[in-house]
Fold this sequence. Notes:
By secondary structure, the protein is an alpha/beta fold. The chain has helices at 17-23, 131-134, 156-159, 166-181, 192-203, 231-243, 245-254, 257-267, 276-283, 291-299, 307-310, 331-334, 356-359, 361-375, and strands at 46-49, 91-97, 100-107, 113-117, 139-143, 185-190, 208-214, 318-323, 343-349.
Amino acid sequence: MASAAAPSPLPVATLSAPRAVAAAAPHALGFPRRLKPSTGVAPRCSLRVVASSSKVDPVEERAPVAPLAGFPVPAGASPPGPSLEPQPQVSTGTWKWRGYNIRYQQAGTSGPALVLIHGFGANSDHWRKNVPVLAMANRVYAIDLIGYGYSDKPNPRELGENFYTFETWGEQLNTFCAEVVKSEAFFICNSIGGVVGLQAAVMEPQKCKGIVLLDISLRMLHIKKQPWFGKPFIKSFQSLLRNTIVGKLFFNAVATPESVKNILCQCYHDTSAVTDELVQIILQPGLDPGAVDVFLEFICYSGGPLPEELLPLMKCPVLVAWGEKDPWEPVELGRAYASFDTVEDFVVLPDVGHCPQDEAPELLNPLVQSFVERHS
């Protein structure tokens, strides 16, 4: 798809000192940001709301999404047929990249390739409700970005500055497609994983057939989005976390079952989805040696690309889906991305929080499958 000129940038975050401290904590293993929503700009692409009979009625009208054979349907919807095929088995593998062990999961033996990219503090297990379902019609891979999950966590202080960046993860993703997937692929991304997917597609456009962005990180603490008077405070706070005991104390306070559960209950609108299994999925690899250094390195990372800088450069179709009740990345701000010519659709998921793939797989899986079928 042809590149488009960038529309007006997303609103700049004007943060007072207390709000900046709260905002500095990242998503899955930190305290949420609560920024005042903005209306953004009028969308150019179609905007629709996925219907869900178990949730409140959507405020915007659209034609209902037809269920796909072999995929879960929301409660109250028509069943997909007399019987469902068994879901493919999910296997776990290790891939060597730059000498580091990278963990990934795989299912499915035929069809288009999908690579699923997690958000901050998460890992490929966060896609456990999606991989086997999508693998019924596709070859599906879910990867642990270096520094997260059960992939290696090299110490950034020993590697020099600027290792844990979107450029590094973009290179990792593209090399993974070349050496493991061995074909072009669709990127399905949540939160900061969306910036990773966009960066990879900019670096090597031939690798990416299309991108689905789920509640992509707005990166409101990016240095470009701070007022001049807030920048020194942000840098001082980041230096305090990275270079003193304060950072490790902060991490230790967050990396407990109780804290992780409380944080997830804030980011999931349906808190019944925050199970003990989910808490362990997020927490366990975060206790590995080196995890604290990666954690602090990323929350002190306020440079790199912004989604609104990468989206106009896309050569592939882009679908943006957003949880209507996301408290960290408000949908009112996310709607600004609908104005890009490279975004073919903006879908609002009613009564869903920041992680639609885990909270509402019955809505997301058919949406992803429909997008893949349109562009295969």
